[in-house]
Amino acid sequence: MKLQQVPILAHVHNPEYTGENRCLPCTIVNLVIAGILAVAAAVVSPLLAVAVFGLSVAAIALRGYLVPGTPTLTKRYFPDWLLAKFDKGPEPGAGTLVADDGSTTDAGATSAPSTDDGAEPGHTDTADEPIDPERWLLEYDLVVPCSRTETDDGAGEAEADTEMEDDLCLTEELEETWRAAIDERRDGDRVEQLAAFFDVEQSAVAVDQADGAEQPVRARVEGRLAAQWESDAALLADLGSMHALAERVPEWPSLSLEQRSQLANGLRAFVETCPSCTGEISLDEETVESCCRSYQVYAITCDDCESRVLEVRQ
Question: E strand or H helix at 153, and its extent?
Answer without folding.
Answer: none
